[in-house]
UniProtKB/TrEMBL annotation:
<keyword id="KW-0732">Signal</keyword>
<dbReference type="Pfam" id="PF21953">
    <property type="entry name" value="NadN_nucleosid_C"/>
</dbReference>
<dbReference type="InterPro" id="IPR006179">
    <property type="entry name" value="5_nucleotidase/apyrase"/>
</dbReference>
<dbReference type="InterPro" id="IPR041823">
    <property type="entry name" value="YHR202W_N"/>
</dbReference>
<dbReference type="InterPro" id="IPR036907">
    <property type="entry name" value="5'-Nucleotdase_C_sf"/>
</dbReference>
<feature type="region of interest" description="Disordered">
    <location>
        <begin position="483"/>
        <end position="512"/>
    </location>
</feature>
<dbReference type="InterPro" id="IPR014485">
    <property type="entry name" value="Pesterase_C1039"/>
</dbReference>
<dbReference type="GO" id="GO:0016787">
    <property type="term" value="F:hydrolase activity"/>
</dbReference>
<dbReference type="InterPro" id="IPR053828">
    <property type="entry name" value="Nucleosidase_C"/>
</dbReference>
<dbReference type="GO" id="GO:0005576">
    <property type="term" value="C:extracellular region"/>
</dbReference>
<protein>
    <submittedName>
        <fullName>Metallo-dependent phosphatase-like protein</fullName>
    </submittedName>
</protein>
<dbReference type="InterPro" id="IPR029052">
    <property type="entry name" value="Metallo-depent_PP-like"/>
</dbReference>
<feature type="domain" description="Putative 5'-nucleotidase C-terminal">
    <location>
        <begin position="351"/>
        <end position="556"/>
    </location>
</feature>
<dbReference type="GO" id="GO:0005829">
    <property type="term" value="C:cytosol"/>
</dbReference>
<dbReference type="GO" id="GO:0009166">
    <property type="term" value="P:nucleotide catabolic process"/>
</dbReference>
């Protein structure tokens, strides 16, 4: 772990089930390879994960079973380790490639910006040559304009210990917000391609479908149906991503999906029993029948901290770390130093939560933005006195702010995007005033192939459809217990429960490797709005409608429904700086500097 990381947390644990074929999955890591430096529960770094994978490989080899590593995309955007350099990712790609990942694919974040997509093609694909799969993604060669596969479409391989024959795919959901140097083919079209139809007819022991795709969405349903139309009971293992939650889905008794969460808080663990053959099995008759009859699938969500890594490997502080892992931790430490990620802009006076405090409330990050930050930073000197409505989408915020130092790293953690404010001038107030309600509650009018209102809020809300409020902790207690390493006190034997994930999935409530007390989750609106420079009394006749660039298509649609038709030609730049830069400036000017 990193030198400033809080010490690991003692907690009651559930052991990992092992099978013939086992998997470790990362997804939506968003640059958090340094681990969480303010949360002991997730304080292990990528170097620790390298050690963990190496120790688990040793264990697998000694048992004669197999272990594969999976990554399902959205590795970038969301942490200073990636976002804090210019160009982005100066140290990041070399750190990520140190982990030996067996199947890896692209997320939507790798494609929002053309330069990020180019780095993906030029760096990550060769770094994981033969392992990087792009079943429905093409890249446009900037030199020739030619559309070429981002990487190979699928992979056939046999595992080393159990000889399990696998066909693996690597998908991205039907994403349409990509820059113009990539082309995402709809999954429903990809599965009609001859190469896919041939691949699903292969005689294998397992289909491995890896994707930046939600387990419960239409894309995996289509892939599942296509495979089952050819192979009625060949086991299928899906790995998903995108919605940032821990999730597990049963498609049928031989087909399951796992999704390991977000931000390096979770490593997904999957164990399949009843696959492959050993020398002994080969001698037996009716091998096929025997294997199918004893299939079982099991999952765990591993909290990323050294207490858990030691527990699962049966090792300790001295015996656990590998040389390779320690070197990777050192690479991260050097990169963080070179990027000055610990440089503090100011001192946060209180915790500000994205989804763990209700909106609006004093502890909600959106309330803070709406009331304190945006009214000051959404300003264009030439139109400073013109009344305006400044709108941002809640999904532009990615994480919480903890009381204490607000660093260069924190700015990218809470908002990595390069979005600037745009505006449409002199919009009749009678139309402008209806925009926010439409963005938040419009339902079908904001649903189309290219514009869907569920893309405005934080991705967790794609899957978490109602509030869940924890009765156990007030917010102050939650915050204290997160920041103080746990000391066993409840009974002599079992440590106190600390707040964390208490996942309910298709297999019940015993998936988390760490037994936690539940935390609250409050849904937030798609967008928030600050009225600025309004007259003391009465309504203005016209206002400037100011908004972050990401939401332009939604704002234009909402304005049209409110009776004011505008096009992209009416939209002008309002601020030269990004929301992230403006926020950092506000913090420098408004928060104390010494914590
Ligand atoms: O420029 C941007 C890009 C994205 N967003 C928000 O992020 C989600 C997607 O996040 P995932 O991690 O891929 O799930 C998107 O729906 C937007 O809400 C943004 O605000 N600005």
């Amino acid at each position: 772990e990193q030198p400033s990381a809080p010490k690991p947390v003692a907690a009651p644990m559930r052991a990992l089930p092992w099978g013939d074929l086992n998997f470790l999955q990362t997804t939506d890591s968003h640059g958090w390879q340094a681990g969480h430096l303010q949360e002991p529960q997730y304080s292990a770094d990528w170097g620790d994960y390298v050690s963990f994978a190496e120790r688990m490989h040793e264990k697998a080899d000694s048992e004669g079973v197999d272990l594969l590593l999976i990554d399902t995309g959205d590795r970038i955007e969301g942490n200073g380790l990636y976002d804090g350099s210019n160009p982005k990712g100066e140290y990041f790609y070399d750190i990520v490639k140190e982990q030996h990942i067996d199947v890896i694919c692209t997320g939507n974040h790798e494609l929002y910006q053309a330069d990020a997509a180019a780095r993906e093609y030029n760096l990550t694909v060769p770094n994981f040559k033969g392992k990087y799969l792009a079943s429905n993604l093409d890249y446009i060669n900037p030199a020739t304009g030619e559309q070429i596969p981002m990487a190979q479409r699928y992979r056939m391989f046999t595992t080393k210990n159990r000889g399990i024959r696998i066909v693996a795919f690597g998908f991205l959901f039907n994403f349409n917000g990509n820059a113009n140097n990539t082309v995402v083919q709809k999954v429903e079209d990809t599965i009609k391609e001859p190469w896919f139809q041939d691949a699903i007819r292969e005689d294998v022991d397992l289909f491995l479908v890896v994707g930046h795709v939600m387990l419960h969405g239409p894309e995996y349903k289509a892939i599942y149906t296509a495979i089952r139309s050819q192979k009625w009971d060949t086991p299928i293992q899906f790995f998903g991503g995108h919605s940032h939650i821990r999730d597990y889905k049963k498609y049928d008794s031989n087909a399951y999906g796992l999704q390991g969460g977000r931000y390096m808080e979770t490593i997904g663990w999957m164990a399949i029993e009843g696959l492959g053959t050993s020398k002994k099995d080969e001698a037996e008759d009716y091998k096929e029948l025997k294997v199918r009859a004893s299939m079982s699938f099991n999952r765990r969500y591993i909290d990323t901290n050294l207490f858990g890594y030691h527990y699962h490997t049966g090792l300790n502080e001295t015996t656990f770390p590998t040389e390779h892992g320690k070197n990777v931790s050192y690479m991260i430490r050097s990169a963080r130093k070179a990027l000055s990620l610990d440089y503090a802009y100011g001192c946060a006076p209180r915790d500000l939560w994205l989804n763990r405090a209700p909106y609006p409330s004093n502890n909600n990050i959106l309330t803070w933005l709406e009331n304190e930050v945006i009214p000051e930073v959404a300003t264009n000197e030439e139109r400073r006195d013109v009344p305006r409505l400044a709108i941002i989408n809640s999904g532009t915020m990615r994480f919480d702010i903890f009381k204490g130092a607000f660093t260069k790293d924190t700015t990218y953690i809470i908002s990595p995007f390069v979005s600037k404010f745009l505006f449409i001038k002199d919009v009749p107030y009678s139309s402008a005033k209806g925009v926010l309600a439409l963005l938040n509650n419009a339902g079908p009018i904001l649903e189309s192939e290219s514009v869907s209102s569920n893309q405005l809020a934080p991705p967790e809300q794609l899957s978490i459809l109602k509030d869940s409020t924890s009765f156990l902790h007030s917010l102050d207690q939650v915050s204290t217990s997160y920041q103080t390493p746990m000391v066993s006190s409840r009974t002599e034997k079992s440590p106190d429960l600390i707040p964390g994930y208490t996942t309910q999935d298709d297999s019940g409530s015993d998936g988390d490797d760490t037994v936690h007390e539940p935390i609250s989750f409050y849904r937030v609106p798609n967008c928030i709005q600050s009225p600025i420079a309004f007259p003391a009394e009465g309504d203005p006749e016209k206002v400037d409608v100011v908004f972050v660039d990401f939401i332009q298509p939604w704002v234009l649609t909402a304005l049209e429904y409110s009776g004011a038709k505008y096009t992209a030609a009416d939209v002008e730049v309002y601020t030269e700086e990004s929301l992230t830069e403006l926020m950092a400036k506000w913090i420098k000017n408004n928060w104390e500097h010494d914590c």
